[in-house]
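Let's do one together. I've listed all components of the complex below, 984 residues spread over two lines.
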Amino acid sequence: MAALDPDKTYKAAVIGAGSGGLTLAIGLAGFGHEVALIEGRDVGGDCTNVGCVPSKALLHAARSGRDDPFGWTQSRRNDLRDQETSEMAEHEQITLVHGWARLTGDRDPHVVAVDMPDGSVSSIRAEHVVICAGSSPVRFEIDGLPEERLLTNEELFELEAAPRSALFVGGGPISLEMATAFADLGSRTAIVELQDRILPSEDLAISETLTAALTARGIEVHTGTTVERFDVATDTAELSNGTQIGDVELVVLAVGRAPKLERLDLEAAGVEVAPQGIVADDWGRTNVDRIWAVGDVTGNTLTTHGANAIGRRTVQAIALPKLPRVGSPRAMPSAIYSRPEVASVGLSLADIERIPRASRRRYSVDLTDLDRGYTDELDHGIVVVDVERFTGAILRAAIVGPAATELIGIFTMAIDHGIGLRKMFGTIHPYPAYAQAVGKLADEFSRDTLPVLHREFVAMARGRIAVALAGVGVRARRPRTPTCPRLSRGSC
Amino acid sequence: MAALDPDKTYKAAVIGAGSGGLTLAIGLAGFGHEVALIEGRDVGGDCTNVGCVPSKALLHAARSGRDDPFGWTQSRRNDLRDQETSEMAEHEQITLVHGWARLTGDRDPHVVAVDMPDGSVSSIRAEHVVICAGSSPVRFEIDGLPEERLLTNEELFELEAAPRSALFVGGGPISLEMATAFADLGSRTAIVELQDRILPSEDLAISETLTAALTARGIEVHTGTTVERFDVATDTAELSNGTQIGDVELVVLAVGRAPKLERLDLEAAGVEVAPQGIVADDWGRTNVDRIWAVGDVTGNTLTTHGANAIGRRTVQAIALPKLPRVGSPRAMPSAIYSRPEVASVGLSLADIERIPRASRRRYSVDLTDLDRGYTDELDHGIVVVDVERFTGAILRAAIVGPAATELIGIFTMAIDHGIGLRKMFGTIHPYPAYAQAVGKLADEFSRDTLPVLHREFVAMARGRIAVALAGVGVRARRPRTPTCPRLSRGSC
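Okay, and this is what the predicted structure of the assembly comes out as:
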């Protein structure tokens, strides 16, 4: 355990002890550096406290029929938080500071001011400042709905029991996962999404398959509308399209995330900010020398594995500054642990649209057509891929179905290593695993393209030239972090 | 629907309509060839009728608490069989012949005699004969046990209900899957394995983790022993180690497979046979020109996906004889759909032992240490890999845990495409998926090897030279079909 030393210049002051901040602190400490890790709330950040960990625990508790699912989820979450907290508090090279950090104008070394819980202000000097302040749920009021009946992920896991009924506003990961859990716990559940389909950043077939699966499980899905007002006398939510949803006990707001910037005093240090968050590159670099930003606070990724991946690069950039900083992060999958699960990886649909249509192909496999789907009575499941012609390079892959969040790894590997459907032809997957869908895609691609390889090659070459000339920055084999809309970019 | 034409010379006479035979018939018909498909029992072979399909259906029915799990499994199986039968019967280029085929001495074209159910003999002339006759369960009597209480996979699925208790002889895939299903259905279950652990062809850690998981679910596991006799008065099985297992209603024999050779009259055609089955190479070639053998009847693979993979190569060799026949089949995974699932891919442990110990490394990740294991209360799960030094090329990977049969696809891809742990470093898997184990393996490998790359390179080079000099035919990057003992090579 290291106490805060006002005279010391730390290698880094890391603001926020969530997924990004822990990656930075542990990573830099692993290189022998001393780190001040500043957290105003709980170690573990959203992931451990109000995100991935309690949501997956609640999903498990609900599915497995546990008694007291919320109590169990809370104790599971608290145990992990306590463990992470003591690991940080006891780490020899990490000084854990409980308080709210803000930047100052001092740059050499950087000075971070910390507003302590007792009202005092501490000062931390560090060569580098890494901002991993995270994000908050976007909040708004609903006319007529009492405040205590409007929850976000920050309040949801403090419930004592599942409500009689819950209405989820927003058709993204949090709603999909929590509607799954609540439905398993016996709540009547409905999802209301403003856009014309849930998961609008995914392929239409993905949204449709998921909607059908949720609907079959009794989860109502209302799209192209939003909650206009709430009548507390009848517990009725009125949607903008005129639909009335009665007997609503709780409303869960999950309509997006906003970066937590308000306490940071970014202006004092001159750090550039855009609407989605702090402007930072693939290595976490901001416009200010030796100030970095990682994770939700940048809006570049909104997932734990995303913050971890960029955070590892930032560790490398700080600890090994002479190594050349080349290359983008590898393909960044998204995952939603609803039932069925949803996962995707690769270019955003918008980026794919920028590639000439004539130089790409789209394939899909209905998982209910596989023998495993047959033996397991699967009602809904699909794999959709967009691929380059000739090579079959995976531009994007998306899956709705059992173990989607594990299966996506096959496509992530394929993108990272430039393995197109042509090269995947013949790869053997076990019978009757759902992974056989990958073999089917490769078979279909080969059947379509082998007889006309010459034409395929020309189409591919034309597409690459068009992309290069347009300078849209689309790379077929190793896509950038997808630029999906904020609402739907991976869970947690 | 094509009727048998005694004057026609078919492109191929395919003996057996299981996984291998259907692959051949459909594949060759797809090239426009006429095929006679001869089956003495049911279309679909073991897989559809007494193997993969009913076993996976029963596992699903048991897990999901279906009423009448056996009746449902039977009807599911029958529906698929009927569908496959009518597809074959109605196929324009396939003539489905119900009877038992045997070879004759006539070679140009080959003549196959078919013993028809009415006692007559038909004769089929074909350029090629492909033997896909499959395998049968090894049977023996147990002293004192009435015949009707000793089942194999051929009788098991005809039960009307799960027995009060069942004893499984043999610790391979069939026992593991069916013990899982029966335990879910409320049977008391025990497995008796002659060798010192279940799944003896897998890594010790795999056997141990699986044993612990099964035992925790109440499935008794007895190893290093076998059933000596049965006392029908007390329903007690006596094991050779003195253990007595009381109140046993049924005994299921699953101790291995024997190729179905007895009706084929291989001598008449001079086809070479070894103890494990017909001698055939990676393309299905036997010692006799234009006689081929695929699947269980060769003993080279004992899985549906194995027969399919080799069968596709045989189709290519017959339909496109001028294409060069180079290369082995791709990495052949094995999969067991027990709970937890088990899957592996790569070299056999015996082949790995032939690679100098100093040129390889072994890594493992305990899946219960992953955050997903934590949120899902996973008690038992592990990934074990053997890799080459320096490159981290996957020699073998094995998994016990949730979705193991899907996750193995990541390692299968890695082997097929020569992606070692060094190249996998940095690949991003979703949080908190079990696939994060792959990232942990790559991290650990990099941490161990990056500081000593020079030493790693020398160790790798020495290993490759030693393997080349010994001529053991072990290839680090694209292993041959594993040469595991017969009993444990993948399920179904």
